[in-house]
TrEMBL record:
Pfam families: AhpC-TSA (PF00578). InterPro entries: AhpC/TSA (IPR000866), PRX-like1 (IPR047262), Thioredoxin-like_sf (IPR036249), Thioredoxin_domain (IPR013766). It comes from the Bacteria. This is Thioredoxin family protein. GO terms for molecular function: antioxidant activity; oxidoreductase activity.
Amino acid sequence: MGISGTTIGSYAPDFEIPGIDGAVHHLARYLERFRAVGVIVMCNHCPYVQMYLARLAQIQVEFAEQGFTLIGINANDESQFPADSFEQMKSFAVEQRLNFPYLRDVTQDVARSFGAECTPQAFLIDQTGVLRYSGAIDDNPQHPGAVKHSYLRDAITQLLSGNEIVTTLTTPVGCSVKWRLA
């Protein structure tokens, strides 16, 4: 990974952060209920996130019955980017019809622990809490019909079928995470 963070085969950082639904979301509780969890570091204003929203919704629908869920996490500094505030996240989720939980990482500790570099960036975690894939959702943000490698979808399929994940690490493409200025 470009910055320090969780490496493939290591335990993913547990987290307990608020969601736009008013609840506190704890990764450990998700791991008790799901066979796999896909954490997507995302935000409201990034054009790359917006290009991927329909594909993420489809992934959620496609794998939900198999014991999988996505979790969106926004870690962007809202003082620099007011469009990424908690209140704006609520509006964004309704407007975009998000079909998975959307959480706020105000301290940015979760994104840093994962080693997030950009939005969107995917992290696939197995039921034991081990990170199995990190990187891009697929190889073509701009043209869904031209995708040749669906990295996240393939990793989920391989994980849920009990097979080894062929591609475990790719370079994410998107906007940089908007870190707080010191």
